[in-house]
Amino acid sequence: MIASDPSRLATLLSYRILDTPPEPQFDDIVQLARTICRTPVALVSLIAADRQWFKARAGVDEMTGTPLNQSVCVHAIEEPEILVIPDLTQDPRTRANPLVAEGPQIRFYAGAVLRTPDGVALGAVCVIDTVPRPEGLTDEQRAALLALARQTMMLLHYRRAVGAREAEQAGGIGTFEVDIESDMLLPSPEFCRIFGLPLQYAIATPELQALVASTDNVGSTPESRRAGRDAGEMQYRIRRPSDGQERWVARRAEFERDAAGRPVRMRGTVQDITERKTLETLQQTLNEELSHRMKNTLAMVDAIAAQTLRQAADQPAVVALSRRIKAMGQAHDVLLRQSMAGAPIKATIEAVVGMATDLRRFSISGPEIDVNSRSALSFSLLIHELATNAVKYGALSKDGGRVSVTWRVERPADAPDKGLDLVLEWQEAGGPPVAAPERKGFGTRLIQSGLAGTGRSDVRYKAEGLRAEFRAPLSFISG
């Protein structure tokens, strides 16, 4: 049934017309339809998923719509142009309709289909009478009703275009379409404003390519478009001819292809992101300054600790403290490169273990997840402790020893109704036999505290190498 077709319903919703207030232009349509066809009732009816809704109505002041089982227009949209039923009690599609068998007992119906240029039926402009009309509509009435349906569709198109333009201007997003055969670009008004061009219907693409900063060397070309490349997002600078300003532009695009898979059109959006780029540059400058000051502070802490503890009997513990301070510095570096919003797990692990040994002895893999700023430091200290122990006592203390670090996200089996867990596994191989430490120092306690201090750790000292599994709620680590 056409009424329930998802693509038809999506098209109807794209017009953003359902449940909108009355508008004089549509009210005029039904007044003209009622007068021309000499009926007591005329409607602009739109067929939604579970109802028909009247954008305009004459002769039914209290009714704004009906369920689909009371709609005659739901049958009209099955027709190519128009549906005329001289006597609704005689048509098997409508004789059981409650509005025919009961209620107002409507008898005559004529509805001209509201159809988009793509052939999608949205509803109908219809007229209704309470007495049968064996003769139906005259030729003039039929032509007039079809003309009013076309006029209604024009109003709907205009209304949607105005709304899209207002939304485009409010969001600062321009749209474009490139015809690949002619290599002409059709821009929206906001596109022209962003590029500093006068309003125009079509632009030759070489004119736009000339505006792109030569050092950026990005953007699509006629050759790449014909090959269907350069879709997705790009960022580049342009020099606007209207004022000579250099602006950053983000462009997103996708291809429309023919039945053979060949690109025929490229459609997309552009947005001026100059302000965002300026803020990113400023943030990077601030981060670099913060990183410099943080390194100086940690270096000072390291120096003070070394000076204070130079006479300590347990010098290996002093060295371990110094390394932990350096691990904190590495974690800060990774965070700052990500603007303090969080850092990828893989980058964090690589930065920390790279201080202790050769990264080529590690296998590091897992889904792309960021460690949030709250957990990054404790996470880095945990990885640093594991790596240091591997170098001193474990797999990395012998040639050929290796370490595998993997992580995954899963729902805990013992609490399936709870949130997701992040599970990190550390596995060593190729080293000497390992045993649990006799004395539990800071490093051992740190490992046992697990990810983000949750204490959910399973550390096993096996003959073939250390095996450790750490769990924490994903929201603790990455939220």
Describe this entry's structure for a reader:
This protein has helices at 6-14, 24-37, 73-76, 98-101, 139-171, 189-195, 205-209, 222-226, 274-308, 315-337, 345-356, 376-392, 442-449, 474-478, and strands spanning 41-47, 51-58, 65-67, 82-85, 108-115, 121-129, 173-179, 184-187, 203-204, 232-239, 246-257, 263-272, 343-344, 362-365, 370-371, 402-410, 421-429, 457-462, 465-473. With 479 residues, the protein is of the alpha+beta class. A six-stranded antiparallel beta sheet has the order 3-2-1-6-5-4. Strands 9-8-7-12-11-10 form a six-stranded antiparallel beta sheet. Strands 14-16-17-19-18 form a five-stranded mixed beta sheet.
Task: List unreliable stretches of 5+ residues.
Answer: none
Report the CATH architecture of the largest domain: 2-Layer Sandwich
Largest sheet: 6 strands, antiparallel
The tally of domains stands at: 3
- Round the Cα radius of gyration to an integer and report it: 35 Å
- The fraction of residues in strands falls at 25-35%
CATH level 4 superfamily of the largest domain: GAF domain
Number of strands: 19
What's the CATH class of the largest domain, please?
A: Alpha Beta
Shape: elongated
Distance between the termini: 45 Å
Give the CATH topology of the largest domain.
Beta-Lactamase
What is the SS-derived class? alpha+beta
Read across the widest sheet, the strand sequence of neighbours is: 3-2-1-6-5-4
Mean pLDDT: 83
Number of H- or I-type helical stretches: 14
**Helicity, as a percent range:** 25-40%
